[in-house]
Amino acid sequence: MTSIYQGAEPIKVRDFHNLIGRAGRAGMHTEGSIFFADADVYDGRNSDDDKWRWKQVKELLEPSNSEPCISSLLSFFEPLRSDDGKYRIKLDAMEFVTSYINDSASLQHLAEEFATNHADKGFTRQGLETQISWKANVIAAVESFLMSHWDTGDIAMTMEGAVALAHGTLAYFLANAETKERLVALFRVLAENVAQKVIDPARRKVYGKTLYGVSASQGNRRMGPGASRQASFR
Question: Residue 57 phi/psi, 5° resolution?
Answer without folding.
Answer: -65, -45
